[in-house]
Amino acid sequence: MSKERARRRAEREAERARQAALRAEREARLARRRERVGRVTALLPRRPVRIAVQGGIAARRRRAQNGLVAVLFFIVQVIAWLLWSSWAARFGVFVLSVLFVPLFVTLVFDRRS
């Protein structure tokens, strides 16, 4: 019985050692990659990156209008898919929608003011 336990313990320890070796190899590879990427990025010039979203009233209104146009476009496409099983009809609705979106935006949303 104790020989069996010792054998199983040795198997578990061997498996743990194998997992630890794999983990150490993976961590060493990641460290080498990080160091290589760090050397390359150190050579590149630093440029400020602007991520902030415009927060003015006009920008918020424009985002809302663009969202509305996108939702309406999607609804039209879903309705076309549900109504017609013909691929030609679906494609035709898609093409017409793409052509009419700028017209719709121009007529409905007066962005000059």
TrEMBL record:
UniProt-recorded name of the protein: DUF3040 domain-containing protein
Coiled coil (UniProt feature): 3-34
Organism encoding this protein: Streptosporangium brasiliense
Entry keyword set: Coiled coil, Membrane, Transmembrane, Transmembrane helix
Transmembrane segments: 67-84, 90-109
